[in-house]
């Protein structure tokens, strides 16, 4: 029996810890014995850095810029645990069309049957999360990823990006696109942050796949150009990533989320802001000091 | 009663309103970048197109080939260079490719003016064309650019963009001390759309001849009788601008009024036939303050010839009345549709049955066009339909009552099938006229009207045998 390739897309607002999370998931899957490709879909081309000792690799689009015909193998580089690392790449900031670049890069891999040839168990797409145009929606469109996860903190802007992604998923869901596996709740260290993100997933009818706390271990590992799995394999944080990877590996049924419309999202965030202010007022109230 | 008469009799007098299709079958205008023909219409100017492969060729084959077989000439058709933008230019931007193409074009092509036109790809991706063309302009290369991506509108609007680009980037400033005083008896003419209007070359020649006849110096700007870029450079020195169309060129004239303080005369009706032409020339003469004696003498001489031909023509026209159409439909761009309607109503006494304007004129110009059609004659007005889709247009044609005689349709090659079905005469007067070979023919002015009469009645009598 031939094994089934599982393709997963991980979206998140820039700077939210998406590449860190994705690389740790890939590393944990590789550690568990799976054949994994990590496919960075961000013009910055730094998704796979921590899988390769902090180094950049030439992107698919770098190769396409230099050559009319490109052998997809030339864009694949081995990383930690035998992970196949690919970066889609993109044009210089401010010119060209980065979205089309991602389409081109993904198409090139598909045309040359790379995923089948490499006998992969997992392809993990790491995608810039604002879904600003059609190109950034490619991994969730028909025939690419089966499951989408989004990395979000409890910050309003991160949730806004996640909500936008949900709109994209909802849009493509009727045309056989990928469905939502859930939210990877990143940088969740307090009960209050947890309540915000829990409320958001409840309202959008999805789930939390894993709470990931902010950790100095992650920063230290990244400074070494490594994932936490590689640099601190016995740490508590590494086990959290392993648990996350295992949940994703076992995950089978994704759903269509119910994104909030613009006004609902604004009202929702305002209500949480009010709660936050009320709490802080209570904490700093003079009576609180004397009592 | 023959079967067709039953059908005709059963047709409602008011056209049924067909359902809108939200699609366009059989196009009547082309992409904005079709205005590459505006550049090619200026002697020794060459368009450079920055677009996908096929875009420029399609414009040429549509507008300049299967439309009177006009041909490419010095700078159009197969001459016009193109970046042939591919996926690489989409992803990384096409600025470098365009720069390379301009450099190469300067090496191998000899032109007085290059006009860079963009297609959808660079306009969507956001290529900074000004940043590419700017350094060439600073080096003194005669080159301008216009952003003409398809989503900006059709070739009529593209034409406005290109003329504006040439004025702002090439003609530039006017300094009476440096360039000489304004010449009150010189006129810049903004009229029919070059190449799209199948007869533009002949029409502009006749307009130029008429205006020269009353004592003006004419910057006709496009076509074989234009002096090329020298005429464009002389635009600011002219005493005034003449807009001879319902709306096309009006924005240009307003712009020239703003930047050069140059007045303009707007005459919506392109003149066909003696009455309209004489009225036109007298209005222009009054505006320019020309000597009425000279003007009247020119008009009288033209009329003498015109009506002499008419005198002979009346034998045919009065004898053959039973075989000639009484009602007409006109389907075309607003300039020709209006000009023809005026002539047919006022000079031939035909009855307007359906008027369709097909170039999708800007919303704000439509009431003006409607007003013109409402006053075709003192006692004749006609509604006008704005429609681009030929399927819908033909539904309207079929639903129109033309009375008991076969009608005459003034339209395009797209009307061939519906004309056959209605046993109508068809005179192809606009884009696309795919079965007409057109060199210098004109249907405007004194001379063009005679040619138009020949065409109308040759078509009519030849159908009887």
From TrEMBL, chain A:
Cleaved signal peptide residues: none
Pfam families in UniProt: Fer4_NifH
Catalyzed reactions per annotation: N2 + 8 reduced [2Fe-2S]-[ferredoxin] + 16 ATP + 16 H2O = H2 + 8 oxidized [2Fe-2S]-[ferredoxin] + 2 NH4(+) + 16 ADP + 16 phosphate + 6 H(+)
Residue numbers carrying ADP-ribosylarginine: 100
Domain of life the protein comes from: Bacteria
UniProt keyword list: 4Fe-4S, ADP-ribosylation, ATP-binding, Iron, Iron-sulfur, Metal-binding, Nitrogen fixation, Nucleotide-binding, Oxidoreductase
Amino acids binding ATP: 12-19
Binding residues for [4Fe-4S] cluster: 97, 133
Modification comment: The reversible ADP-ribosylation of Arg-100 inactivates the nitrogenase reductase and regulates nitrogenase activity.
Cofactor note: Binds 1 [4Fe-4S] cluster per dimer.
UniProt cross-references to CDD domains, sorted A to Z: NifH (cd02040)
Cofactor: [4Fe-4S] cluster
Chain ranges passing through the membrane: none
Enzyme Commission number(s) from the entry: 1.18.6.1
Family matches, as SUPFAM superfamilies: P-loop containing nucleoside triphosphate hydrolases
Single GO MF descriptor: metal ion binding
The protein's role, per its UniProt record: The key enzymatic reactions in nitrogen fixation are catalyzed by the nitrogenase complex, which has 2 components: the iron protein and the molybdenum-iron protein.
Subunit structure, as described in the record: Homodimer.
Family: Belongs to the NifH/BchL/ChlL family.
Protein name as catalogued: Nitrogenase iron protein
TrEMBL record, chain B:
Coiled coil: none
Gene3D superfamilies registered for this protein in UniProt: Nitrogenase molybdenum iron protein domain (3.40.50.1980)
GO MF annotation, one: oxidoreductase activity
Domain Nitrogenase/oxidoreductase component: start-end pairs: 33-459
Matches recorded under InterPro entries: ChlB/BchB/BchZ, Nase/OxRdtase_comp1
CDD domains: Nitrogenase_VnfN_like
Transmembrane residue ranges: none
Domain of life: Bacteria
Protein name per the record: Hydrogenase
Annotated source species: Pararhodospirillum oryzae
